[in-house]
Amino acid sequence: MTRLLSGAALAAVALAAILFLPLSGLRLLACLVAALAGREYLAIIHTGRPVAMAPVLLLVALTCWGLSDPNLSVVLPLLLAGLAWLAVEVLFRGRTVDQAAARLLAPWYIGMPLGMLTAVQGLGGPRATLLLVATIVVSDSGQYYTGRAFGRRALAPAISPKKTVEGAAGGLVLATSFMTLAGPWVFPAAGRLSLVLLGATIVLLGIGGDLFESRLKRTAGVKDSSALIPGHGGVLDRIDALLFAVPAYYLYLRA
Fold it and tell me: Could you state, in order of their start, the residue ranges of all structural domains in the chain?
């Protein structure tokens, strides 16, 4: 019951934000979500004391804010800022290149796609955002229920033993079908094949994002990224598939 109630509340908040917040408010909310998810990511990779997270979390939020601007004029400055901080981490903070690179992945792993998600709203309006989110939800639900009903073969047993090939196939078919049927609502000029490819790409990238976070957690020996959302784990647990899928959808929208 706790999981159901918190999930419903989370969905209601997300829907209200997409439908009613002005773009500036949505950008601020995306930055807050990026900072929360970034903190969970840094905790998973054992980055150290909370105070050591502050510069990286600031860069995560700045990346999210900058990339939520559809003209992408800040990409180069943000990239340079990230490289500069990487040098600081290695030269003056005593971290290895591997440790510094893992920390500096946060702005691009989390800040970039959440910024792009807000830019999707600016480019295509709430319909474009809702179509992407709904496709991910259909994919996740399809994978879960198809996997429970028909799952026999593990998809990635070393990373996520509960994921099955049959579940992934079910999510792929259902979410791609959904994108093909609902896509013209947002992309009236798009051909059917184009929407099929878009839907399949979003599903496959979403599965990759889910497995990527599962690998992070398994390596760290934790079940959830945090306990922030009752019954659901952390922010990163809720958006892991979305993070990998957003850039492809954003580029499709711009094209």
Answer: 2-254
Which two tokens mark 122?
């600016």
Q: Three-state SS string across the chain, please?
A: CHHHHHHHHHHHHHHHHHHHCCHHHHHHHHHHHHHHHHHHHHHHCCCCCHHHHHHHHHHHHHHHHHHCCCCCCCHHHHHHHHHHHHHHHHHHCCCCHHHHHHHHCHHHHHHHHHHHHHHHHHHHHHHHHHHHHHHHHHHHHHHHHHHHHHCCCEEECCCEEEEEHHHHHHHHHHHHHHHHHHHHHCCCCCCHHHHHHHHHHHHHHHHHHHHHHHHHHHHHCCCCCCCCECCCECHHHHHHHHHHHHHHHHHHHHC
**Euclidean distance between CA atoms 174 and 142, whole angstroms:** 6
> Pick from 201, 217, 203: which is nearest to 161 by CA?
217
Between the two ends of the chain, the Cα-to-Cα distance in Å is 43
Given a contact cutoff of 8 angstroms between Cβ atoms, the answer to whether 24 and 68 are in contact is: no
Whole-angstrom Cα distance, residue 47 to residue 190?
Answer: 44
Find all residues with CB under 8 Å of 103, minimum gap 6, and list them: 42, 45, 47, 56, 89, 95
Q: What pTM, to 2 d.p., does this model score?
A: 0.91
The Cα–Cα gap between 191 and 133 comes to: 21
pLDDT digits (tens, 9 = 90+) for 188-246: 999 999 999 999 999 999 999 999 999 999 988 888 888 888 777 899 999 999 999 99
